[in-house]
Specification:
It holds the Pfam family DUF2069. InterPro entries: DUF2069_membrane (IPR018643). It comes from Rhodocyclus tenuis. Keywords: Membrane, Transmembrane, Transmembrane helix. This protein is mainly alpha-helical. It is built from six helices and no strands. The chain has one domain.
Length: 120
């Protein structure tokens, strides 16, 4: 279960980074030719190394950061039409998957869980 949460969080975070870039640069930018809104993917790059290495502390704080992307997805899914709405729904799904996986990973790797495994 821990490995599944780790892999799900890695895949969903990387997919969300690529989605943000593709959305704002090519697929449905706010302005033709791309927009500066593509820079919204930069905060997602900060935790990437810690997520890839399975650092529990990174999972704890990034589970709060990802909620901003979830909120953006909700707002844009309800206010936009067409391709932007579909991309917003994809952002909601990816951020939700990442949130659940990161919370599960942080829970499964807590120190008291590790002590319980060693006692058995």
């Amino acid at each position: 279960m821990t490995r599944l949460a780790l892999n799900a969080s890695i895949v969903s975070l990387i997919a969300l980074i690529f989605l943000c870039l593709a959305w704002e640069l090519r697929l449905a930018p706010i302005h033709p030719g791309g927009s500066w809104l593509a820079l919204k993917c930069l905060p997602l790059l900060l935790p990437l190394r810690g997520v890839l290495h399975g650092r529990r502390y990174t999972y704890q704080w990034v589970s709060m950061l990802i909620l901003a992307y979830f909120a953006e997805g909700i707002v844009r899914a309800t206010t936009e039409q067409g391709m932007s709405q579909a991309l917003a729904i994809a952002e909601i799904v990816l951020s939700f998957v990442f949130f659940i996986a990161s919370v599960a990973y942080a829970y499964r790797t807590r120190p008291s869980a590790q002590a319980g495994k060693q006692a058995q």
